[in-house]
């Protein structure tokens, strides 16, 4: 069950066992049976307390057990729910982990459960990352819906949802099929600021090769093949949000020396004296689909490095554009 909140305040079902569901109402799974109200009350209590809970059904001889899926920071994004006879034992819970992306702050957060799903050793756990790190290091192999997922992050429209099955390559090299669901919501901070948050859950549904919906190990999409074929030494390509001028993802390996992670000395940035030039490039992109020029970007050592930027307008979906940016060192041509 997801408990993301937002415009769908009643929890919906994202999976029954290892079978993904399209965020369907709980009543459609329980068929308005005698346990529906009990399950809804249990879910509400688990979300409120953040603790596992077991209750007896008010009608019929059934045990109802709920376990929270808490995100980093303590919010509950989902609940494992099991309904069974008193003499039954619930089956083992499939690995799943909660996460959220603060689009306003450009930060993604992963729960300990998600890091366990990834097979990450505890000494290497990092719960918070820059948004662009979501797609780095080859951990996630996306499907043809990747542009829709990026569009959701660019638009950050409250109520928008996305579901897909991608492949996760764990740190031990094992490939797993991971179904995920997410929704964009609006949250008011303690300081009264409104922020856009994408709340999600990732659910391990089996070995990657055993799940037809999971992408194959090689990039088979034509667009991916074209991008791979055009990779050039000394050039680094990335997708950038035109509205915020922030990095969404690297297409190639990251450009050496550029600050782009959350754990660098200071946050990634364009030099303040170059912001006007960057804005002008954005206007040129909107007008002609192309732009180029030099910009100074913050380096990993907290100074500034000049790069040559070439940008082309790209479509993420029918209504959303981004910039396909190529970075080179000024003296490399």
For the structure shown, list the relevant keywords.
seven-stranded antiparallel β-sheet; 6 helices; Beta-Lactamase; alpha+beta; 333 residues; single chain; 17 strands; 3 domains; five-stranded antiparallel β-sheet
Give the % helix: 10-25%
CATH superfamily of the largest domain: PAS domain
Give, in order, the helices and strands: EEHHEEEEEHEEHEEEHEEHEEE
Q: Which blocks of ≥5 consecutive residues have pLDDT under 50? A: 218-222
Name of the top-level CATH class of the largest domain: Alpha Beta
Strand order of the largest sheet: 8-7-6-12-11-10-9
The separation of the N and C termini measures: 53 Å
The count of domains is: 3
* Main sheet overview: 7 strands, antiparallel
- Beta-strand proportion: 35-45%
């Amino acid at each position: 069950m997801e408990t993301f909140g937002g415009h769908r305040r009643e929890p919906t079902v994202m999976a029954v066992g290892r079978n993904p569901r399209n965020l369907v109402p709980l009543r459609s799974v329980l068929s308005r049976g005698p346990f529906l109200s009990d399950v809804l009350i249990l879910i509400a209590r688990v979300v409120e307390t953040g603790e596992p809970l077991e209750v007896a059904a008010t009608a019929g001889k059934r045990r109802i057990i709920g376990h929270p899926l808490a995100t980093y920071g303590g919010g509950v994004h989902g609940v494992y729910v099991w309904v069974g006879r008193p003499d039954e034992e619930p089956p083992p819970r499939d690995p799943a982990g909660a996460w959220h992306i603060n689009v306003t702050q450009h930060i993604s957060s992963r729960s300990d459960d998600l890091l366990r799903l990834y097979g990450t050793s505890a000494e290497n756990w990092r719960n918070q990352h820059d948004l662009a790190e979501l797609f780095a290091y080859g951990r996630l192999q996306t499907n043809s819906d990747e542009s829709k997922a990026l569009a959701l992050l660019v638009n950050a429209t409250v109520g928008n949802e996305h579901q897909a099955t991608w492949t996760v390559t764990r740190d031990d090299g094992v490939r797993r099929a991971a179904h995920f669901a997410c929704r964009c919501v609006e949250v008011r901070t303690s300081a009264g600021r409104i922020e856009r948050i994408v709340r999600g859950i990732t659910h391990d549904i089996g070995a990657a090769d055993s799940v037809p919906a999971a992408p194959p190990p090689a990039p088979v999409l034509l667009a991916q093949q074209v991008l791979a074929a055009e990779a050039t030494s000394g050039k680094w390509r990335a997708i950038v949000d035109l509205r915020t001028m922030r990095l969404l993802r690297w297409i190639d390996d990251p450009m050496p020396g550029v600050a782009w992670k959350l754990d660098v000395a200071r946050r990634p940035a364009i030099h303040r004296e170059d912001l006007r030039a960057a804005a002008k490039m954005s206007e040129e992109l909107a007008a002609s689909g192309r732009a180029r020029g030099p910009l100074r970007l913050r380096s990993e050592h907290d100074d500034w490095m000049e790069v040559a930027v070439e940008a082309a307008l790209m479509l993420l979906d029918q209504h959303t554009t981004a910039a396909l940016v190529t970075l080179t060192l000024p003296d490399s041509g």
